[in-house]
Amino acid sequence: MRAILFLLFAMCHARLSLRRKGIATKPKKSTVVKENLDGILAVGGGTLCHMVLGTMYCWGNFIAYAPPELQYYSGKLESGQPDALAIIPMTIIFQMLAMPMGAQASKMFGTRTIAIFSGLLISIAVYASSYAK
Q1: Mind listing the pLDDT tens digit for each residue in 69-121?
Q2: Alpha carbon distances (Å) from 69 to 49, 64, 79, 128
Q3: Of 5, 13, 25, 39, which has the fewest CB atoms closer than 10 Å, so is most exposed?
Q4: DSSP string across the chain
């Protein structure tokens, strides 16, 4: 579901950025409704993107209510700090390391291609994680 929402946002963003650069055709006066729809899609896509990316920031709330078995990698109740507390710093570190690569890839391949590839990658990861034991 996240991948679909992210792809929707990316397609709206790519369309608007092409229009700003003058590559896409300018709408005629009779397409005022179409322009409003583009604005609504852009705001909706931005909201969906914040929902997808916000899961990292919500993890601090999730961990407090997670069952003890899910807080440790072994799946057994142990003593000491839960292993799941390492998820937030690791997410921030890898996000920080990947952001410059994402910007360079976006320049090389284009925003739409990167968004589609990212959406497919997220979809494959979610599907593959359903088989984890």
Answers
A1: 778 877 777 777 877 778 888 888 888 888 888 889 888 998 888 888 888 88
A2: 31, 13, 12, 21
A3: 25
A4: -HHHHHHHHHHHHHHHHHHHHT-SPPPPGGGHHHHHHHHHHHHHHHHHHHHHHTHHHHHHHHHHHS-GGGSSTTSS--SSS-GGGGHHHHHHHHHHHHHHHHHHHHHHH-HHHHHHHHHHHHHHHHHHHTT--
